[in-house]
Write a structure and sequence with these properties.
The complex is a heterodimer. By secondary structure, chain A is of the alpha+beta class. In chain A, about 30% of the residues lie in helices and about 20% in strands. Chain A has a six-stranded antiparallel beta sheet with strand order 1-6-5-4-3-2. Chain B is α+β, with helices and mostly antiparallel strands. A six-stranded antiparallel beta sheet of chain B has the order 9-10-4-1-5-11. The longest helix of chain B is centred in the middle third of the chain and has 13 residues.
Amino acid sequence: MDFGTTISRYEIEGDKQPVAQTPPKPVSTSTNTVTAPIVSPESDPSETSLLPESIFESWGTINRVGMSVRMYGDLVRLASVPDGWRGPGSRALRARSLKSFLDFWALVRSEAKEPEITLAPDGMIHAEWFESNRKRLDARFSERGVVFGLFAQDKIVEGVDSVEVVSQILKLHGSKPLSWSHR
Amino acid sequence: MNAPKFPKNSELVRYIDGLHRLRARRPAAAAYLPDPPSGTPSRDYLSVNSLELESLQTIADYHRVRAQNGRGKVALCAHKVSRYNMVAGNCGIAVSFDRASGTWRFKDGSGMQDAYKHHARTDKLKSYSHCGVEFVRALTKHNEGKFARRMADRRFHLL
């Protein structure tokens, strides 16, 4: 799946340049993971009504794939951003992008560090793994696939494909980019 | 008001909003992705400020008021015009210097156009150094990503 460009699907070039009934609010737990809160019948409904709709809609998947409180908090933060957040034309988080990211995360989580996630102006989730300027990976989760770019071993690998294919490419890559984390 | 000439060693500064500030003062690549097309091509450019016209501090003060309610530190990332030109080339857009007009030019569907333009803001806030990287509107969807990840290679200043 390509966006009508003339480049091949994977382009390599040398670059000398240099769980719960309801979702919890992103607060720390003793295990530092998002877990199911106990919801009593007396729970105040306003406790969860402030969470973005896209998080509610994806809660089942979020709960199933598992993630830290930090990443869950980042997702909530991104999902809270309104249309026009970066000026006219910029869009709020697209539900399909969130789904695409969660599907990807489910496939790679067992051998990946959690990325830093941000929002692209078209409403797509943008994730980055970083070790140094020469070893970094970014992936944008669009409605039509995953657009990724990998800087490693003085080469750049860039392309777009399905969640399944991109997850395989990255898991099998010799430099193990999904394990990069700049702390 | 002077207009910038965009010599290759002059620097253009990009404001990095809070959502795009990563650890260790790294800008997210998404900070360099152009906004979706507006339908009016002349309005589609990547906003930057020219250090030819204003200092980093003046530019930071403008963005603090414009985007942060006058509070907090402002993140700004500077690149030379020559770097923008080179990355444009990496993404299939040839930017060349036109000696006759003394401007950097690129080609898109409607012919040769200025690669950089002065868009001074003279409204209440005023930003005399506001400029646009115009060639981004000629990037394909795929090449937008190539452009952004190459530009996001420099740590930002916090002022």
